[in-house]
Amino acid sequence: MGYFRSLFRSLCLGSVKAFPVVALLLSFVCCVSAAEPGADKSTVFVVVGAAGEEEFGKQFAEWAERFEKLAGEAQAKLVPIGWKATETNDLARLKQALDAEPKEGAGKLWLVLLGHGTFDNKEARFNLRGPDLSAGDLAEWLKPFKRPVAVVNCASGSGPWVNKLSAPDRVVVTATRSGSEVNFARFGAHFSAAIGSPDADLDKDGQTSLLEAYLLASNRVAEFYETEGRLATEHPLLDDNGDGLGTPPDWFRGVRATKKAKDGASADGLRAHQFVLVRSEQERKLPPAVRAKRDELELRLGKLRDQKTELGEEKYYALLEPLLVELARVYQRAK
User: Fold this and answer.
1) Digit-coded pLDDT (tens) for 260-310
2) Which residues pair with 239 in a beta bridge?
3) CA-based nearest residue to 217, from 171, 186, 240, 256
4) Which CATH number fits domain 43-274: 1.10.3470, 2.60.200, 3.40.50, 1.10.287?
5) Kind plus residue range of the DSSP H or E element containing 151
6) Chain segment 89-108, per-residue pLDDT in tens
7) Which of 131, 157, 227, 314 is deepest in the core (most CB within 10 A)?
């Protein structure tokens, strides 16, 4: 229930005008029947790159094992690349595995890259055993996918991946904001820990979203450099609105982006907050069709909220109430 209360607070910004509608909504949530298991099962690709040194290899393996454990808890399909196997051409293995994945459906595709990266001022690459993976190649391979996709590149020099990989219904997270930040990136250590940690649950809905893990991991990265008295050489970015710009973590207050780019681009974070690897008990009870419709309506509500100032209060609430009523009806139909 905490999720829906936090949703209401974020939408109405403390106003009491929509309380009757939300009360109706919450009453329906309590009656939702159990979901069909596996109907929107996620697939988690965990790609471990060439370590270079044994010390890095141990760290990458530890991060990968965290995702393996979480995939098991989520009953998600795990696709390991670069570890648990002896192949030396991981690029070919990755392409083959992506080609075999369903291109449509509600199940989310997570693609997590753990390792080192490079940038030659033209193309950003992720270092693999054998040929490296370029951002351009991955962008081409993902074009056929119509299902929700998240690409989390925890490598150095990964900033340019935001521009290359950005697309509708896709979340892109990078450990750096540019290709020139080429020192070893610690973001992967903190992100792999945060995605399964209740400490990252900012809205207290009993589960940790990709957005929340990004924010906690970014905060831990910043704390490391500050504590060590070192110049930060990694600044994470998140893009989920398809504009290829990305949003830094310090633009967020809680799970909401409170700043916007100068050109008026829409805020990031709305879609990333809907990507959850290990769902709460309440979330697991929602039928996949209800969850999908709920997510669609939440995105519309979030975009409406961003327009509140320019719309004016009266028009804003006139547009808000029908959306909340429609959301309540979604749950009513699932009773």
Assistant:
1) 766 666 779 999 999 999 999 989 888 888 888 999 999 999 888 888 888
2) 172
3) 186
4) 3.40.50
5) strand 149-153
6) 999 999 999 999 999 999 99
7) 157
